[in-house]
Amino acid sequence: EGWVVKYQKPAGTDANGLGLAVVDADGQLQPLCTWEEGERTFVVDEDAESFEAEDRVVQILDVFISSRQMPRPVNPHGEEVEDTYLIDEEEDLEDVEIVVKPECEPSMV
Predict the structure, then answer these.
(1) What phi, psi does 20 have (nearest 5°)?
(2) Nearest 10 degrees: CA dihedral of 41, 83, 48, 105?
């Protein structure tokens, strides 16, 4: 649980190649996304479903796990947090298809 991995996307999908995911408490892979090109901090992609890790993990990455407060519109009292995964600069992400979702940017509200 908590490991960030490069995984092989299924053959024949629109997005062949490698993706980034975190291993969840059930041993499933949960895809990750970030909010801008070149950013190395990732959060769970809430729009993507988790899936079996078997025969899909290519590499375990060196990451720093932290958390951030969820934005106020979905967290009015400020008590909810989400995990963030900062991938070490030494890790090569050139072979990974990074999912960029601007709406995942940290909120200062």
Answers:
(1) -115, 140
(2) -50
